[in-house]
């Protein structure tokens, strides 16, 4: 493992159902633990709570995931807030409605298919 993989990367989720966020993100983290050292550092249940949450976590989060319950416009707003609050943060939004269509397993499968590209994002 390289040193970049040893240094934990804090991840924040924005999901109105914190228990589901913890389960889905926890599954993804478990599945990639041999490649990435990711810690689910917090969840905001509101758009208004995103900036204060990001500012409260040390070291600052490196990744923000938006859940699929938000509209594309809300997801765009959440990601904009994240990038203004923490320049350089990686952000990703699950397609709107994915949870409703595919359940938690569908979201995990979706994120697993994109985690490498998210982690390489500049």
From TrEMBL:
The molecule here is called: Uncharacterized protein
What species is this protein from? Kwoniella dendrophila CBS 6074
